[in-house]
Amino acid sequence: MSDPVLSLHEVRLSLAGRPVLHGVDLDVSSGEFVALLGANGSGKSTLVRAATGLRPVSSGTVELFGTPLPAFRDWSRVGFVPQRVGAASGVPASVREIVTSGRLGRRRLLRPLGASDRRAVADALDVVGLTDRATDSVATLSGGQQQRVLIARALAGEPDLFFLDEPTAGVDLAHQHALADCLGTLKERGATVVLVAHELGPMAPLVDRAVVMRHGEVAYDGPPLDEETLHAHHHPRLHRHDHTPHVGSPLDSLEERR
Ligand SMILES: Nc1ncnc2c1ncn2[C@@H]1O[C@H](COP(=O)(O)OP(=O)(O)OP(=O)(O)O)[C@@H](O)[C@H]1O
Question: Which intervals carry biased composition (Basic residues) (predicted)?
Fold first, then answer.
């Protein structure tokens, strides 16, 4: 196994005084495509925020590309699409400006945009289907379109490690397929992807590994679901209290077999 590009060890994290992550261990190797699954409030977004340094951990360690987070500087290698924020931000930035901001980490200081920057931005806009809205203010876009702008911004940076937190919420199926194609290309190029999702949809064939969170802990870490498991998941005897029925948790089929 290659060296992990992401490594969490015994990570604990509290929010507003309440423990949310209870000692999470997770190593993700270069080139892996990991689906991070689990019920509402199980800690998926918090885990991604801990991994990207957006939320300081209470204890434990996080390493990116073998470097402990406090010393990590190579942020151009990391892309992050946050969970959908919804309403327009009110910031009068154009779609192209926002997407171009994803190149900042790749550009040398104070250099104008080069041909490769412009190409990456154009490709990213094309993938999310917003080429014809490039000069529009993001404030005029719908919530789903704004989500696609955030995806394009992260894609434009051509990251080696890509975190996406529910990227397809509110995005129509055609653009989900376009995003899946794009992530497939990133994967072929050797990028590592950590995808938080309730529904994998067109992303399902890309997934190498499923990590299921439950109550702030990793409850399952293993191969993605096969068809049989998916069917078992829809078994009527199951009583679920969350909204993950489409993805399914491998734990459910394990529980079923008991
Ligand atoms: N800013 C915050 N302050 C206090 N508690 C929070 C905060 N953000 C999240 N939490 C709590 O932390 C827990 C984990 O939330 P998190 O968003 O990580 O879960 P999730 O698995 O990503 O869920 P979802 O699918 O709803 O996004 C939840 O109980 C949530 O209520």
Answer: 234-243
